[in-house]
């Protein structure tokens, strides 16, 4: 094991031909050791812009695929499973070494590169309806629900133990819970359906627990445990994938196979031409809406697509009004709490740059923590003005005065401020710092 600080002082070679006697100290076990596990699975990484490779190294870990084979024995909180995985037509050398065919994580998709309806803008794409209906990208989310009947019990005795059981006098739950008190395997459960029940010996009562998720789910395995996309050089992949499909073979997508003299485009172009296709992988397509022939040649090929496990339903965030922070009266943050998305300094700067002062005032004051306060015209304090009621019976007649100024000829102004400003003044006062506000009556 070589430490990271040690590494800089070592002479490590990749290929034996690079060896210098007396200088070379180590050699990589395999040239591919230059890349990480995730990096080794990228097809033609040497043809990509480097951020794309870094990005793919992150994404490869977030795809739906076949992560394990012991589905029934696992108790991971959440697992994702791709329903119809395929092996890629283009495999880097490492793909077989890592036995990735046992853990496939994508589908070969026929992709046309064209801007068509506008629904394909940015990184979006329009997908073929029947391909979706035949299961393209379909996946399953597997959640494990752990029920601990020993919770709160130190030693189980005949008197205090809890056991899975069903109250046979209650006919309504028979549809959902079996005789053993457990859910039926393979049954679809909806929100608030009874899912399991147990008997408490202590009070001889049956407790029924309900299914608490909004999205319905099918009950899978039950185990009882006793106590205890984007386009970089996807272009080459697309062409090569198409060539592989037409010739019925799997092609190598390892890095550093092609170079300036022997380019990938030429290699796969020739293969495509041999199969009767256009050299650059372009094809004539017809509009699916009108049936008309499109007037441009469209780049069309096969790309290995990965379905990521990020779902819009888990991410979207929207808020009109909602919870506010009790101290500052500003909207709270966080999707879970029904909060807003921060309008930060950079956003503020853009509005300033656009010169939209009223919009800025609306975002940062009116729609946020608008509050009013009283300012003493004499000393400029916003903390010392208090209300003095004329009599104890009437709260309608009062005079506002500044506690720290002489009673005579006081001028009190009402001012609109962000609530945090009052908060700031109070916090500073606690540290012996006085905030003076200069107020002029409006002209
Ligand atoms: Zn004052």
Low-confidence stretches: none
Helix coverage percent of residues? Answer: 10-25%
Overall average residue pLDDT: 88
Question: Are any ligands bound, and if so which?
Answer: zinc ion
**Cα gyration radius (Å):** 34 Å
CATH superfamily of the largest domain: DNA-directed RNA polymerase, subunit 2, domain 6
Q: What structural category characterises the helix and strand content? A: alpha+beta
Task: Please work out how many helical segments DSSP would assign.
Answer: 9
Which CATH class of the largest domain? Mainly Beta
Largest sheet: 3 strands, antiparallel
End-to-end Cα distance, whole Å, is 77 Å
CATH fold-level assignment of the largest domain = Dna-directed Rna Polymerase Ii 140kd Polypeptide, Chain: B, Domain 6
The coarse silhouette is extended
**What is the number of domains?**
4
Please tally the β strands and state the result. Answer: 18
- Output the helix-strand order: HEEHEEHEHEEEEEEHEHEEHHEEEEH
Structure description:
- The structure is a single chain.
- The chain has 443 residues and is α+β, with helices and mostly antiparallel strands.
- It has four domains: 62-137 and 231-305, DNA-directed RNA polymerase, subunit 2, domain 6 (Dna-directed Rna Polymerase Ii 140kd Polypeptide, Chain: B, Domain 6, Beta Barrel); 151-227, RNA polymerase II, Rpb2 subunit, wall domain (OB fold (Dihydrolipoamide Acetyltransferase, E2P), Beta Barrel); 317-366, DCoH-like; 370-429, no CATH class.
- The protein is built from nine helices and 18 strands.
- The protein has helices at 4-7, 50-59, 93-97, 129-133, 234-247, 264-274, 345-354, 357-366, 419-429, and strands at 12-13, 26-27, 78-82, 90-91, 107-113, 139-143, 162-164, 188-189, 194-200, 205-210, 217-218, 251-252, 282-283, 298-305, 370-376, 385-389, 398-402, 412-418.
- A hairpin with a 4-residue loop joins strand 9 (194-200) and strand 10.
- It is extended, with a radius of gyration of 34 Å.
- The termini are far apart.
- The model has no long low-confidence stretch (mean pLDDT 88).
- Bound molecules: zinc ion.
- Zinc ion binds next to loops.
- GO terms for molecular function: DNA binding; DNA-directed RNA polymerase activity; ribonucleoside binding.
- Belongs to the RNA polymerase beta chain family.
- Keywords: DNA-directed RNA polymerase, Nucleotidyltransferase, Transcription, Transferase.
